[in-house]
């Protein structure tokens, strides 16, 4: 796992790196310190050693000097020297020299001439040179002299033989050899090398250094002067050195080289370095272990957390995280558990919200469809009750904002109270509810719906206001009325709308209702495009002037040739157009088409007065008169050739505007006619206020008109009344000859109906006019 | 070396013998001895070889040792004189001489040794004590009949000298090569003659110091150390 490898490795490597840095720094600082200590210690030792060396040489010199003095004062020795006998003197010199281990003993006269010597190799010349040098050194105040003689180095001490006045000088030489050097080394702890260089002779070396080092030193010395720092590397060892000139004179020089081995001193610290290395190793191992342990300690809970997080990601919130720790990870785990619970809770909430209506707490459309779907899947028969509230807007207006909501809440409570187990209630949209009644067919559903309706008709109390809701219920049954939730719901909705028109407010779905709805929808959809598509046409129904027996008038009737549905009747699409606001579009088209037709006919000398229907919406359009006038001018048609038929209810809707429009139209010269007279509730008083010239008695009064019927009274009195008001009267729906006869008798002005002619296309109407009137019509005369 | 300074002495003695002649005992000599710087010289020896025939009386000589010193420091005797070496100190002395004029050795003794020492050859006999190195005395053995040793003020006085001509020899322990200074002539006759003799002394540097400086080598070594350190 990458977490493990990276996290653990990172902690471990950081720790180890840190440790390595610390140990390294420690090691180097210790090394630096010890090196410095070794250097300074060695320097100090060299300093002390040098001083000890100096003291030793001094003491030794003094000892020798004293010894020689004592020897020279020996009476026997003096006697021997004073004897003047060379052999005697020689033996005395040898004897007394041997007493103090002198290597060589010489007796010199006061005139510096050699008298006797224990070493035959010492010549007069050597002595002369030595004597001169000794004199020289003596003048410098030195009493002990380091001098090379032949191939050996001697410490020379001179003493005067007094008997009792000075009679001779005795000079004793003590060989400075390896033993002496080692003795000094024992005391000073320094490596001592004495080098006596002489003219024309190889240098004399006395050294305590190991032979190879000594040789290297010789080579180094011959190569050049030693370095200033005093550091010297000989073989494996490094030394701190000092060089002293102990004695120098004409043709010779004695140097002392004192060396302190740094390597030896450093070796004293070797155990320390080993210890540091050991400690570092141990610490390294311990920290590695510790890091791994720590990382494991951290990474294991982290992995656990990661696993739980993955599970949460997959939507499983039920497994609690078992991590009992008091540290940050423990807190994280606690937070994790809380988060898990929070997420679970919010998800429940979200799910509930997604499937429920926030206002009423009822299931929403989604859940309703789901339940419906599951019932369908299980093929459980059920009834779907689609409940709509018709007057929710009115409730809102009466009870103020929120009133509607309160009403809906109360409604939902009432509905819920009626539910049987297994039934369910849902709110689909604002004022629509759905009830699913399990194992219920249409018939029992109607009973339930009736009971519901009775229950719901009781007023609700909203605040201080009592409100009665206008509820309608549409009923569909599964599986009888549909097999998919969508179908069922759509059909129930349609049925509910149908129910609105029924007094009982409950309607059951009937086969085919759905198709009508579909046809209506496509008509509504296509209607606005119909004028532009040229699908509309006008038919003209002749209107007979009963008294004159002539036809000089016609009613223009709109026809719609739908591309798929064929000819659509005005009774079907006009209400739709009125409901959907397309009617004005149609009216405009009709007016223009009529004017165009009239101009055409006028051009051919055919004078016809055409009436056309103006809808309620048109009457509320105050622009209409101006538009019409403009068109009249455009088509050069006299206004008198136009009659606008209006309905009573159209004027009633907004009398003020409608009257204004009517007066304006009338001012243009257009005649106005009241259509469908007798079906509405208009009063005569109102009629009087309208600038109309004509009444059209609704065909329902005319169709079955005979002498004895109630209609006859109404028609006759209407005609009389109209005439008394100065209005002409048109009778529609004249289908029978006897009807025409009665109308004639009652002095009705104009008749229209199938008896005269059905509505005709423009060409056919023209042709029909050219023919003589049929006998039935002409019978009037 | 001993031979060298022996030879002139002999010549001197020979010369003195030849010049000797009898004279009247009438004159005396008052003289002062100074060094070349004019400083009075104590322990300076003046010997006179007078007119032939005139012979001085033999006097008794004695070399005492008092307070670890030879007293007198310089003793002049005529050749053939027996000199006793009494020891006035309460310690013993070991008096010796390796001088060619007289080699002898008086082993550790106290009081007066049984035998006086006969100085039978003219010359300088340097006396030493084997126990006390600083004890140095001189016995100047001469053939001349008249002699004197200067006092602390460098003065001598000789009485009853026959008038006449004298050869004068001068000596002092610090005289170069220990050889007497000769050649001066002196005519004595008139009374109250005041003489002044000048002696050249040996340079003191020629004498080796009695003891070595305590740390001469150390000084030299230190000097070397310092030099190398610089």
From TrEMBL, chain A:
Any matching Pfam family: GGDEF
SMART domains, per the entry: EAL (SM00052), GGDEF (SM00267), HAMP (SM00304)
Biological-process GO terms, alphabetical: signal transduction
Entry keywords, A to Z: Membrane, Transmembrane, Transmembrane helix
Limits of the GGDEF domain: 380-513
Domain HAMP: 296-348
GO MF, any single term: cyclic-guanylate-specific phosphodiesterase activity
NCBIfam families: GGDEF (TIGR00254)
Protein name: DeoR faimly transcriptional regulator
TrEMBL record, chain B:
Signal peptide range in chain numbering: 1-26
Molecular function in Gene Ontology: carbohydrate binding
SUPFAM superfamilies reported in the protein's UniProt record: Cupredoxins, Starch-binding domain-like
Key words, A-Z: Signal
Domain of life: Bacteria
UniProt KW Coiled coil keyword: no
InterPro entries: Carb-bd-like_fold, Cupredoxin, MauL
Keyword Signal carried by entry: yes
Protein name, as recorded: Methylamine utilization protein
Organism: Pseudomonas taeanensis MS-3
